[in-house]
Write a structure and sequence with these properties.
There is one protein chain. The protein is of the alpha/beta class. The strands form 2 sheets. The protein has a 5-stranded parallel β-sheet with strand order 2-5-1-6-7, sandwiched between helices. The longest helix is centred in the middle third of the chain and has 28 residues. The termini are close together.
């Protein structure tokens, strides 16, 4: 089974590429969705988050992700504490999904992981190849401000919490340039998938 990691930085277009890959019929494990699963009501992970960040981080039994995000992105120590709680649970859940697909005989699996390098997934031994979706920093900032309705300071805080997109591109096996239109991005991804199909 070939396992391909897909990442980028916040607002560089990883989700758009994930949709194209899934639409082409490939199995995609989305770490963002896994991250939501591991903090659902009743999970051990959510209970640990409540212990550290307080009961008011939960509303009607559900984690207020926006409130938590505002808290941790302005405080590196709190972000580190949150990561220490959630990362092991996310890692374990992804590994379970990989084993499930392996047992089903899937030939190619994509894992979309926003913090692939930050969380050392490149050192996990899982990945045969790493794809990075990149934009220049100004476009990244503008897209994030528009998408999440953030001022420049808040957007920069989120970007600076991650490894720079330039550094991620250097560590990638394949880079998709998302400085242009959606159609231009789609063409790059479809060409990559066509070449991948030939290898299967």
């Amino acid at each position: 089974m070939k396992i391909i990691g897909l990442t980028g930085s916040i607002a560089t277009g990883k989700s758009a590429v994930t949709k194209i890959v899934a639409a082409a019929g490939y199995r995609v494990i989305d770490a963002d969705l896994v991250a939501r699963e591991v903090v659902e009501p009743g999970t051990f992970t959510l209970e640990k988050i409540k212990d550290i960040f307080g009961l008011d981080i939960v509303e009607n039994g559900v984690l207020n992700r926006k409130k938590l995000g505002q808290m941790v992105f302005q405080d590196p120590a709190k972000l580190k504490a949150l990561t220490a709680i959630t990362s092991p649970a996310i890692y374990s859940a992804i590994e379970d999904k990989l084993n499930f697909f392996k047992n089903r005989g899937e030939k190619v699996i994509f894992i979309a992981i926003p913090l692939l390098f930050e969380q050392k997934y490149d050192e996990s031994g899982w990945l045969d190849q790493i794809l990075v979706v990149a934009t220049n920093p100004r476009i990244e900032l503008d897209r994030l401000m528009a998408r999440d309705h953030l001022d420049e300071y808040a957007a920069q805080s989120r970007i600076k919490a991650q490894i720079s997109i330039e550094k991620k591109a250097e560590m990638a096996d394949v880079v998709f340039d998302n400085n242009g239109s959606e159609e231009e991005l789609k063409q790059q991804v479809e060409k990559y998938l066509a070449d991948l199909k030939k290898e299967e």
